[in-house]
Specification:
By secondary structure, the chain is of the alpha+beta class. The chain has three helices and five strands; from the N terminus they run E-H-H-E-E-E-E-H.
């Protein structure tokens, strides 16, 4: 399934920009590798490996987990029509995903769904 990325009002792909700023190439490579696995295998297969988790209480938000050398990156995404829509990426520092991240991802996903309906 195709992967599309959130772009801000200026057209900047914030997910790509975040990944690009990661200094260690191996960390960037892990994120890119997980995105490829998502694209090729789908979220159902990755849920079995615990790389993808459904966010409880949110109808269309999933979390893709990327781990490398003690660092954990989280990508929040939704499924819109026939593609994955990556809404947010961040460096996880807490045990749970903060509500503000989930709310922001949900807002972005809903905006994209409205755009697709036009």
């Amino acid at each position: 399934m195709e992967i599309r990325f959130y772009k801000n009002s200026s057209g900047v792909n914030e997910i790509y920009k975040f990944i690009e700023k990661i200094r260690e190439k191996k960390k960037r490579d892990v994120i890119i590798s997980k995105l490829r696995l998502l694209q090729v295998n789908g979220h159902y297969k990755l849920q079995a490996t615990s790389d993808v988790k459904k966010i409880k209480g949110r109808p269309n938000i999933y979390e893709l987990r990327c781990r490398y050398s003690g660092t954990i990156y989280r990508l929040l995404f939704g499924i819109i029509l026939n593609y994955y829509y990556l809404a947010l990426i961040f460096n996880k520092k807490d045990q749970k995903v903060r509500k503000k991240y989930i709310d922001l991802a949900q807002t972005r996903i809903k905006e994209q769904e409205k755009y697709e309906k036009q």
